[in-house]
Structure formats: C-alpha cells, structure tokens
Request: fold
Amino acid sequence: MVVANAVCDAASLSLGEGLEVLLSRKLDTLAPGQILDVHSDDPSIEHDLRAWARFTAHEWKGMHAENGRFVCSIQRGTAQRIITTVSRDREELDTRTLVLEAAARIPRTAHPETGFSPRGAIVEKGSPEFPFDVLNADQAWNPEASELYERAVSSQWNAAMDIPWNALPVIDRESERSVCQVMTFLAENEFAALYVPAKWIPRIHPHFVETIMFLSTQICDEARHIEVFVKRALSNGSGLQFSSASTQRSLKTLLDREDFLEASFLLSVLGEGTFLDLLRFIEAHAPDPVTAEIARRTRIDEARHVQFALAHMKHAIESDSSFRHKLAAAARDRASSLAQARTVNPLVEESLIVLAAGGLEPQHLPNGVRAVRGLYDTMHENRIKRLQLIGFSKADSEALSQSHTPNFM
Amino acid sequence: MSKPITVAAVAYDAKVVTIWEMINDYFRSRGIANDYVLFSNYEAQVEALLAGTIDIAWNTNLAYVRVHRRTNGHCKVLAMRDTDVEFATVLIAGTTTGINKIADLKGKRVAFGSRDSGQAAILPAYFLAASGIDVQKDIRLTRFDLDVGKHGDTGTSEAAVLEAVTKGETDAGAVGDQYWGRTLATGGVDRNKVKAIWTSPPYCHCNFTVLENRYAKDLEEWTEALLQMDYNNPAHRAIMDMEGLKRWARPQLAGYKPLFEAVEVVGYFNASG
Reply:
C-alpha cells in the first residue's frame, strides 16, 4: 500500500454532488506524483472514482477497506488545471499581505494579455490579447484617482429629486429663452464630456483601475448633467434652443484626439476648467433658484473632473517632462484647426449677457456685457493658474490659455 | 513541404472538423504537412486504409481489430490518447433491483449500447461470458443500436442505456467508464436510481493505425511530433481538450487482447463481416 500525502473524508458524497469539487481542491495542493487517499462510505465509490480519475488525468491507485470504510488512492497527474507562470503555493495564499501587495502594485507598463483580470490576479497563459493601448502608468494612472473616485461615489445626486423643480417660477420670456439657450449649450458640451472618457475607457488597461473607476463616475456625472440641463430647458416653456456648427466642430476635435493624455488635457484641464467659471457665472446670474441649483451642483461635479485631470497631468509631467511639450502641441494643434471660429456661438454669448443684465432693459444691458467680459477674463486667469499648477511656465500658460477655444469647452 | 500525410477520422460530431483543422495547424507549426479526410463510418475508413488511399486511420479499437484481421497483423499502431490506455466498461444497475455484483444479473433485464460499440456491447458480452453469464440465455438483453457505424463514439447508445436503467425499463446496463465518469461529474446521473456495480479490467480504445508497408520515416516523424503535444502549453490545450486527452501515449498493444478475444467469443465479424 502506498503512503498518502494527503487524506480527505468524502463521507457518502458522490460525483455530481460536489465530490469532484472536494477532490479537485485537494489534488490542487499536491505535486504531480503525490497520492490523495479518499475515505468514503459509498459502496460504489470504486467504480465512480476510477472513471473520474481517468478522464481528469490522475492515476487510479486502487481501493482497500479500512475500519469498515472504503479508501481510494488517487495519484495527482501532471496536467495543470490553470497554466500560469506564477506559482502561488498555499503559504502565499494564506499570507494576506502578499496577496494585497499584488493587488496594490501599480505596473509601470501593463501587459495586454492580462485582459480583464483584476490587478493582482494570477492570469492563465493563453488568454487572448486585448486592444488596450494606454499601457503606461505615467499616462494612465495618477495618485489621486482612488481618493477622487471615493469622493465621486459619495457625491452622487439625483436629477429628479435633488433639484427644487417645484420652486420654478414664471420668469420673463427673454430670460427664460436665455436660460434655455445656455442649457442647450451646456448639454451638448456635456455629451462631449461623456463621450470622450467613454471612448478612452476601453483603451486604458484595466490594471489602471483607479483611472477607469474615476472615469466611470465622470460618465455617470455627465449623464446626470445632460439630464438636468435638458430637463431645465423643457420645464418652463421655451424648450431646447440652437446648437451651432462652431460648437459642434470644437467638441468634435476633443472626440477625434487619438491620445488619452492629450484628450484629457484638452477636455478636462482646459475645457471643464473653463466651465467651472461659466457655471459659477450662471449660478450667480440665474433668474430662478432651479437654474442656480443646477449650476451649483454640476459645478461641484465638474470641479472633481478638473481635479482629476490636474492630478493626472501633473503626475505625467513629473514622470516625463516631455509630456509638457506634447500637451502644449496638442493645444496649439487644436487651436489652429479651430482658427475660423473666433467667438462662442453668438446666441450663447447673448444669453449670458441677458442673464447678467436681468433681461433686455437698455439700462441694464451694459452691466450684462461687462459681466460677460469679466467672465472671459476670469476664465483666462484661472486657466493660467491651472496650467501653472501642472508644470507650465507663466509665459506658456498665458499663451496656451489665450489660444483656448472661444467655445469654453 | 511535400505531399501531405493524410489522416482519416470519422465525423461523429461537427467538432471533428474543428479538431482536425487545429491538428493541421499544429503539424504545420512543426514543419509537417498534414491533411485529413472524414468518413461517416469506421468500416468505410478501414477500407480506405486497406486500399492505401489514406495514410493513417484514427480508429476505434474495433476498427483497429478489423484492420488487424484483414492484414493478418501487418499493421502498426502509432499512438493513442492517455484516455485510450486504460479504458473500461462499467456495469450499472437500478438501486432497487438488488443487483450488486455480476452474478446477480442472472435472469435480469440488461441493456447494451450499439452492437458495434466496444465498450457498451462487445466487451460487456465478453466479460459477462468470462463471469459465467451467457448473454443469449442467462439475461434478457436489450440492445440500443444507435449511430451504428460510429462504434459508440457519439455516446447516444450509452445515454439510452442509462435512461433505460434510470426509468426502470431495464434492471442493468453496460456503458463506458468515460461516459459514466463524465455524466456523473456533470450531474447527469440520478444517484437515487442508478449505481455502478462493476468495473471491467482495463483495455485499450482508439489508436492511429497504419499499414505495415506504409510505415516509413515520415510517419515516424509525424508520431514524434504528435507525442510532443503538451497539455501545459495553452496553444495545444485547446486541441487536447476537444479531443479528450491530456497526453498522447505510445501504443500499448497488450491492451487490445480483450477485444481480439471478445470479437471471437461474440462472433462479431461472423455477423458483421
């Protein structure tokens, strides 16, 4: 009789009832050639296990009786159930820190063949290659992403319940039309802000999961923003207004960009950054509390997106200073392709003036014009601050901000 | 590359095409030109091998025995699957029939699979005879002659045997151990109604058969290349999983002795030519 390396008690469990699970788990812990003894009370175990051992490529070593029970011996075969290069023995599995470290280790470069496996999992050889092409940590990851994800998750709000829709008053026609034009404009911009991260998620390697998770919240935020902007346009009589070709052209350049870092820089640092000032302006000049609350809540979300992008660009430029030139070149390239569009959609600009003026009264319109000019100055100043924050010189920041699209986003 | 080596197989399932395309690719990666032809039944495949229109036949044990008889032993086995080496027949019985051993089968209703299935008909009859049970006189035999010509490859007749025993339409039956083990492990057996009562001595099943006068260096190289297929290599695993093996094995001819004797005992070729 051979001496067993491991023993398991199968009671009267049979194949198909879970015995195969018990045996597979026990055999996994053995090295090829080692013996597992299975103690059983099932009188037909001999026939069943012999057949099972053969098609699972383990060797049947026979059965004997012992203290009124059946003892079957199975020799572990050489076939690995999962083909990996990593061997994770039992001790390692029991060591929590090692397992956690594997999950916490951010790769400098991720390998496409690890596919959708969560970071730290052991991946079987022969898995298919995935078309991820953002594979380097300096472009795909940043140290603030997981914290910002947590904040995003705990800051979700509901477009139907959290906006005081019942507080919407009847307002003058010009102001209402202006609100609706601005809402139309905001919604189209938010589509871009939804589609751009959505385009990049399938291209970023899943091992940069913090980025993927954050971008998922961004998409969720933008969906809610689209909902709330469209609802506001539809809720008080005027409805959706005009969407200009120049705005569409400007937004399309964001979607067309074929580099994640560049797309994220243009969309979130320059575009969404500029939107923070726009939303603050709308909140300040809103003719009704609903519009004000919408602008306030969406701005808080947008601020998170901007913070993510700032952290992302800062991390990238600190890892490789050549990214600074690359990002500047992308901004210039976009500016030159949008050279024919020198101003924002005039209907949007007019609407902002009307909102700031509180209507079309001639005596108030100059205030509106001044306020919008002041907004442009504020946008420019804040863009410069953000650009400097991520590592651009003052001069470069000024030039880049100056060339930013008049479309804001 | 020269003229390909032509292997014949029986198309018992649509996946056979996929398997052989993958095997072609495997041999190509080793610099060997391999091609395949498919037959609908083993008898036609054996005739093609004897006529020299194919180089290698992927045969069941019964087809191999036929080739052996027709060539007076002037044939050669190249390789077999690990799962072909210690094949066995399992006798199953209804749990309420009182059948616990072979001798209990006397006077009972017993089901066999297709008459050309080595594991579910020919060898069971032989093993019962060796235990003193004449299948003509001592039991009431039902045969499920399904997919005749495919030598039991499709498993349909074994499924019919299991179903008959489960429903109590017969008291006992014979199936291959592969069918039994897999069906058990996938939950396809009602353990309250059916149990295994006996496992036969091991015997060999399928193999790659060639004519002795065709055997040459090219087939030797083909065999060596086949044997290098490695289950722990992901590119090979897909083929091996589909073909139901984890290792190709060198021939173990002694394992065909039970079937050589069985076909004589049951007079298989007298009836089937």
About this structure: The interface with chain B takes residues 14-17, 20, 43-44, 46-48, 50-52, 54-55, 57, 60, 77-80, 83, 124-126 of chain A (CB under 8 Å). DSSP finds 15 helices and four strands in chain A.
